[in-house]
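An instance as discussed:

___
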Amino acid sequence: MKSVWLIIVAGFTTGMGNGSVFTAAFLLAVGRAPFGEAGLWWMDPYDPRTFQGTADWIMFTFGIAFVLILGYALKQHALIEGLQEE
């Protein structure tokens, strides 16, 4: 597949951008109460038990999902156009 970097970069940036909107809605809905730490120091932003860590992992999940969706969509497009063998 010739467009692997396009899939990774465009999929991850689009997915994480959309994930940030979902993250904002999610964190506004649950509030600060379930999180004991803000998660702003050292490796805490990557710990899903912290406020910031939850936000980051939601965005990572959306990014990975969009990479998979974009990869599948471009593969199907190539098959339809006859650019790639099955």
